[in-house]
Sequence to fold (158 residues):
Amino acid sequence: MTPINKLISVIALGSILFFTASWWENSQSRIDTAFIKLGGLSFHTSIDTGINEAKSLGKPIFLYFRSETCYWCKKFEEEALSDKRVIDILNKNFVIISIDTFKQKNVSNNLGVRSTPFMIFFTKDGEEISRVPGYVPTDEFLIKLNSVLEKEKIKQSS
Fold:
């Protein structure tokens, strides 16, 4: 093989690898569905859709930040988000949104979320109620949920 043919081969192979990597990155960063099933719950995957629903229903928002490679996220989803008591409270009282910190980097960065799992509760009008960084056992999460609901009731009655 002549040196010029080697150079052409290397350039062609490099181009193929570059375009394949670029395609892969774009395909992984797209949100393909409007909902994702986590534990026993169905979460919105679009923050805009979730916010609009919260405003129309007059419900607060549970914003859950996760990644598919996060061990503690999977543990939280298997335990807390699969617990019937948690499922009932979240379905009845909140609009729930899941943000993938890799696929939706802008949302995570804009809200200062640097680790997973991470949860933020908002009023229906977008005012932050509470933040919960890291993994939380089911019983602790239930206490937090009830505390957020109390704060929300106090805000609504003011």
Q: What stands out?
A: The mean pLDDT is 87. The helical segments are 3-29, 47-57, 71-79, 84-93, 105-110, 138-157. Strands lie at 35-38, 41-44, 61-66, 95-100, 118-122, 128-133.
